[in-house]
Amino acid sequence: MPITIRRRALWMTSLSIAAAACITTLMGLREPARLTAGSAPTLSVAGFAVVNLTQPTETTPPQLELNFQETAAKVQSTTAMLNTAMASVRARLQKAGVRANAISTQGPPNLNNQNGSWQADSTVQVTFRSIAQLEKVVDETNVSTDSAIQNVWINTPSVTMRPTQQALAAAYVKAVSNAEKTAMRMAAADHRQLGAQLALTEGAGGTQCGAMACGSGTSLGITPPVVGNNQELVAVSLTYATTP
Question: Which pTM was predicted?
């Protein structure tokens, strides 16, 4: 029966299951033993570590929004001028390397009559792969200076932080070591010896109790360390067989 690494959200968020799986490789864990009827009580303990979040990740792409406006005496003339202005800017953006499917018009044009003249306006939204690409295209095309464009604004990307794979793997190793030390202390306190390791899971139980007093397989809740800004908690649970 292979060791399973399961995602549990009680003590952690956004952890990579691939990074969790590396625990078995790093710790050299063996295949867990099987318990039979009448086996000795098991001991389950939690282990924790804190990992620093150092890699920013964009969760939404940067966007450029261009508001076009044209005015003429007749409705058809106004919408034709608007469409021509938007098509011209669209062509300039594509020539600068923007994909056609990254440029969209936000709904039909709005039409208003102002003092006998018709005014038409519409917004074009451009989605970029990165803020660097957006900056490059805006500087190269100078679209903000187009006479038909009334307003220009940039929606900057949302950014989250994550740990490096190396830092996450090291944190799991530390959490496993923390759990092993706790298990040895608790077994000694109950005058028992640790036997075979039966299970390794990601996450931690929260029951506060003695190692053997609560019965076979009960999780021992350990207070996790304080997590600071740009940090994340890593937690694992180890289960051992015990012997007198």
Answer: 0.52
